[in-house]
Amino acid sequence: MEKRIAVMGIIVENTESVDQLNNLLHEYGPYIIGRMGIPYREQNIHIISIAMDAPQDEISALSGKIGRLAGISVKTAYSKVVH
């Protein structure tokens, strides 16, 4: 199965959805290369970036599930390289 490298940018505005987000990230853990979280306390939001190496449909599935969580926004950028 062809895999792609991708980066997800996640903004958490509703901390009540963090447990659901962490459960999803744990579920897709085998595909996650790295994760960085930055609390932006002055604006009461959290910024998370996720680097992934996975089949495109797995990346899209995770992005869609995250995007349905209340108070959480996500955008995904894909590399052009398929391996």
Automatic annotation (TrEMBL):
Domain of life: Bacteria
Pfam family, one: TM1266-like
Official protein name in the record: Putative iron-only hydrogenase system regulator
Phylogenetic lineage: Bacteria, Bacillati, Bacillota, Erysipelotrichia, Erysipelotrichales
